[in-house]
Design a protein that fits this description.
Radius of gyration: 16 Å
Organism: Rathayibacter rathayi (Corynebacterium rathayi)
Shape: globular
Largest sheet: 6 strands, parallel
Helix content: 40-55%
CATH architecture: 3-Layer(aba) Sandwich
InterPro entries: AB_hydrolase_fold
Distance between the termini: 13 Å
Structural class: alpha/beta
Number of domains: 1
CATH class: Alpha Beta
CATH superfamily: Alpha/Beta hydrolase fold, catalytic domain
CATH topology: Rossmann fold
Order of helices and strands: EHEHHEHEHHHEEHH
Protein name: Alpha/beta hydrolase
Strand content: 5-15%
Strand order of the largest sheet: 2-1-3-4-5-6
């Protein structure tokens, strides 16, 4: 019987997100997982305003979560996976990439700066500032792939505000959590990871916000080690 992995995409303004889980998803499928990829920010278009509300939205919209043995999440998607973890079976493993589940005040100030630019100058300028903070391999920027301006604006503003406001309410949490961060990212580093579930933090030197793209081979090795230790 194949196992199930549920993956939460990062905050994005494209019609489709092809970068996450990307190669990680392929790797999991090759070893016997079915991978369900969710457009995390769809919850904002349905009225959600907080990380908790996004998590509740997906608990209702994705009943497969109850059967998952692995949660994946990148950036905002990783924070939602972190929030969901306490609602699932204790045996579920969480694997996140650049997920600011315990954002420092410095990071919150950067989110606030991007929100200000988005509100005053527009989504394109805000996305450019985000990329400068992200470092490493850039996100897909094809104009033809982007959503209409109102949808992009709603996603960006709601997503960043939800990240800014998020505070994990758990002092201690059971579970197994492996998280990967890049040393060159100014959006989610090791100091921005919540410690409530005693995560295993893997920092990749030279990588930015998207280490699964910057250093895909190294991330693949981390995934392989996780599978052998935690899921096999």
């Amino acid at each position: 019987m194949r196992e199930l992995a549920v993956s939460f995409q990062p905050l994005h303004v494209q019609h489709d997100c092809h970068t996450f889980p990307g190669a990680i998803g392929v790797q999991l499928e090759q070893v016997g997982f079915d991978v369900v990829s969710l457009d995390t920010c769809a919850a904002f278009e349905d009225g959600a305003t907080t990380i908790g509300e996004v998590a509740d939205y997906w608990r209702a919209e994705c009943p497969q979560l109850a059967d998952a043995s692995l949660l994946l999440g990148n950036a905002l998607g990783g924070v939602v996976a972190h929030e969901l973890r306490s609602h699932l079976d204790k045996g579920v493993v969480t694997f996140t990439v650049s997920a600011p589940s315990g954002a420092t005040e410095r990071l919150r100030s950067r989110f606030a700066a991007v929100i200000t630019v988005a509100a005053g100058e527009g989504v394109a300028e805000a996305a450019g500032l985000l990329e400068r903070f992200a470092g490493g391999v850039p996100a897909v920027q094809g104009e033809e792939e982007r959503r209409p301006e109102p949808a992009m604006r709603r996603r960006l503003l709601a997503g960043l505000q939800a990240l800014t406001d998020y505070r994990c309410g758990r002092s201690q949490s059971e579970g197994r959590h492996i998280t990967v961060v890049g040393s060159k990212s100014r959006l989610a580093g090791r100091d921005d990871v919540c410690r409530c579930d005693a995560p295993t933090i893997v920092e990749l030197g030279g990588a930015g916000m998207r280490p699964h793209l910057d250093q895909s081979d190294r991330v693949a090795r981390v995934v392989s080690a996780m599978l052998k230790k935690e899921l096999r």
